[in-house]
Amino acid sequence: MKKLTLIPFILLIGTLAVAASPAQAKVCKIEFTFYEQFDFSGYYPGETVITGSVKHTYGAIYKFNIVAGPVEGVLYATADHMVTHLETGDASGTGTNELIGTWLGDDQFYGLDIYFFGNSILKRDGGRTYGWCNSFGTLGPYTIQAHCDYGPVLDGPLAGTTYVTGVIIVHL
Q1: Between the chain's N and C termini, which has fewer beta carbons within 10 Å?
Q2: Euclidean distance between CA atoms 93 and 120, whole angstroms
Q3: Model-level pTM?
């Protein structure tokens, strides 16, 4: 008899738990592209160690001013550890990124402060640096995730800059 009263009790508790759980959070995805220009005033070369034909760079800091796109501000990038093959110039490494600025996108977030910080993967091939980053931060009062790819702009009016393109997920 105890089993028969216990089963409805478990079902009742399970039903209440599901009913009391919060609704799925709402998100807004924004695709974006902005362009940044290297700023020598914020450059720190870091420390280097050469072993054979390989150069290890630790703690290099790069500053970029955002010059076009839906963000006004600066982006700081670090190369926490970059391994460069001196014979070819090709390199790979890990680092961080930090964006500080104002969102100027033509949407409901226009004029809000934007900030994100995260991890980056760097790759230099043929003298050009490419990579991706995964970052977390805020857009005004909202929390965000930013998933980006970046690389050099080779031609056109923005040649010499770096493109940053990706998706910002805004948690509403």
Answers
A1: N
A2: 8
A3: 0.82
